[in-house]
Amino acid sequence: MDSKTLLLAYMRAKKYSQFQEVAADLGFTSSYISSINHGKSQLTDATAKKMAEEAGLDVSEVLLSMAAVRETDPELKQAWYDILAKYTKGTSAALALGMAVLLAPSPGPDLTAHNVYYVK
Q1: Residue 92 has what pLDDT?
Q2: What is the pLDDT of residue 105?
Q3: Would you state the torsion angle of the CA atoms of residues 13, 15, 18, 19, taken in this order, to the nearest 10 degrees?
Q4: Terminal CA-to-CA distance of the chain, rounded, Å?
Q5: Within 10 Å of residue 5's Cβ, how many Cβ atoms?
Q6: Which pLDDT does position 56 carry in this prediction?
Q7: Taking each helix axis from N to C terminus, what angle separates 19-26 and 45-55, rounded to the nearest 10 degrees?
Q8: For residues 98 and 31, what is the distance between their CA atoms, to the nearest angstrom?
Q9: CA 36 to each of CA 28, 71, 79: distance values in angstroms, whole numbers, following the listed order
Q10: Contact 52, 62 (CB under 8 A)
Q11: Are 48 and 66 in contact (CB under 8 A)?
């Protein structure tokens, strides 16, 4: 995720339709928000953290992704993407396990009919 994608996710979460609304909300100028939208500027980690939290996104995943996007050295960029892939794989597995536990039938009374006679 780059700064522009985070900006758009934040706008969607806050139901903003104008960059001026984001600028006023975060205390930035409209031109700064516009430069982020055009890819000319990047958000700081602190601002990205705040926006991710308010948009309901995984802060760690957003920060890892932004570090990968900002990196200019190809080897380091790949290392960041590898870390991000491991992180998201781990969180996906944890989420799947959590959902399996939540969706598993709860132990309760056995409602099986044991007194049913089958006739041929």
Answers
A1: 58
A2: 55
A3: -20
A4: 64
A5: 13
A6: 92
A7: 110
A8: 43
A9: 11, 17, 25
A10: yes
A11: yes
- Residue 9 has a pLDDT of 93
Taking CB atoms within 8 Å and a gap of at least 24, the contacts of 22-30 are: 26/50, 26/51
DSSP the chain: --HHHHHHHHHHHHT--SHHHHHHHHT--HHHHHHHHTTSS---HHHHHHHHHHHT--HHHHHHHHHHHH--SHHHHHHHHHHHHHHHHHHHHHHHHHHHHHHSPPP-------S-----
* pTM, two decimal places: 0.71
pLDDT, position 4? 92
pLDDT along the chain (120 residues), means of 10: 91 94 94 93 94 93 90 90 83 52 50 50
